[in-house]
Amino acid sequence: MTLDDVHERRWELLALTSIGAFMSPLDTSILSVAYPTMSPALHLSFSAALWVQAAYLVVMAVLLIPLGRMADHYGRVRFYLLGIAVFTVGSLLAALSMNAAWMIGSRATQGVGGALLSATSAAIVTAAFPPRERGRALGVNVMAVYLGLSLGPPLGGLLVEVLGWRWVFLVNLPVGVVSLVWGWLLLPRAQRSEHGETHPDVAGAISWAVCLLCLIVPLTFASHWGWESTRTIVSLLVSAAALVVFVWTESRARSPLLHLDLLRRNRLFAAANAAALLNYVAIGAIGVLTAIFLEVAQGRSAGVVGWLLLSQPALMAVLSPLSGRLSDSVGSRWLTSSGMAVIAIGMSALAMLEPESGMAHVIAALAIVGLGMAAFSAPNSSAVMGSVAREQLSLAGGFLGTMRVTGMALSFAVLGAVAASQLGHEGGRLIFSGESGTSSLAGGAIAAYALGYRYAMACGAVLAVVGAAVSLTRGPRVDDADTTRAGA
Predict the structure, then answer these.
(1) Which of 30-34, 113-117, 261-265 ranks highest by mean pLDDT?
(2) Where are the beta strands (DSSP E) in 233-345?
(3) pLDDT tens digit string along 230-286?
(4) At what angle do helices 35-42 and 46-74 cross, to 10 degrees?
(5) What is the rounded distance in angstroms from the CA atom of residue 427 to the CA atom of residue 436?
(6) Reported pTM
(7) HSE (side-chain half, CA atoms, 13 Å) at 249
(8) What is the 3-state secondary structure (H, E, C) of 145-205?
(9) How far is residue 205's CA from residue 202's CA, in Å, rounded to a whole number?
(10) Calpha distance 276→22 (Å, rounded)
């Protein structure tokens, strides 16, 4: 596909990649309302239920940068279509799960597909659109993400109540099959690399994987292992050592997994990615933790909870194209920083929720978070993708995606641990037992979770304030030349 072909078909490319951008968040958000029903069927504890979500995110975090690097060399389209196929297969396996281990393995498979999609989607869009249209196009791509988040909770609630929790995964199958066939017909099935030979950075990939695994796993289970336990301390030390090895390896590799100059000398790239990491640590676990609070602590049905959770992603979906288009004119600095500040206000409101709080409080708090996210996401994505050369687009998309999914995994680990901090081992077992009306122990677990939830939301608000400050350090807008357009 030539440069002219890419430009002429850029809106078709945007539509196709938006389907991939839609699938992963749909799966994440649709699953959030299914935990109280799915967990007893699969015998999941609270920590195991969080790991079902974290397994997906950990695999994505580990693979995004290596796959982004490979996609820049071997072809973004090829990797994108493979991502759709793997994600669809993982969804089928998850729907057939019979126990916790099977479910976690299926979610890891979905994570492989999600990594392929995330590493290539924004890169394909950035390559197809000139800089003057990039924010607008990425705003549409981000809108697709938030449409997935929007449709997930109400659709998930309906499916759980009418057909059962397995259908929250089966619903991905027709979307995956249709988009795969469309992509196969629309896009070139053979591509040549523009960048000559590459030498796989095996040492860098392994050290990066060890760093992330040994960071996220102990944070996820620290509330059960104990922060002072040998497993927790050793894992975190190994993570720190692996990071040192990764930096040393990348500074000497012939074809590094990540060019460290992007972080050392590209202030916009570094600050925007750091802000993205803090943003997703702050908000990543909101949907799941709030859904559990509303269903368990307030006794609401999955269907009602689905509609209540809609207020956050609905605003994100509606406003993201507008903020992306605005960033084409005014830049990203103040939009992203103010967005993070608004997120902090919304999370502070969530931290004030009580078991007796009404729907209006829930809807308003989530809507404020959604408004902040709409102001942050598309401008920040446009800034990152516009700060690199065209041969690094998938790498940049992979790195930004790594910040997103690592942030979300850390959010489930950190905020999930804070939410579970008052439960203890017995409370973690009883929280999904459904015995609150007959067991004082279960009732105590619910009260403990409600307190932990408020602490978790307050922690997220603090992280959002820090993220706003970091976002300001990116400096004023820099107009990039029209050099990022390239064949997809």
Answers:
(1) 113-117
(2) none
(3) 888 999 999 999 999 988 988 887 777 777 777 777 888 888 889 989 998 998 888
(4) 100
(5) 12
(6) 0.71
(7) 19
(8) HHHHHHHHHHHHHHHHHHCCCCHHHHCHHHHHHHHHHHHHHHCCCCCCCCCCCCCCCHHHH
(9) 5
(10) 19
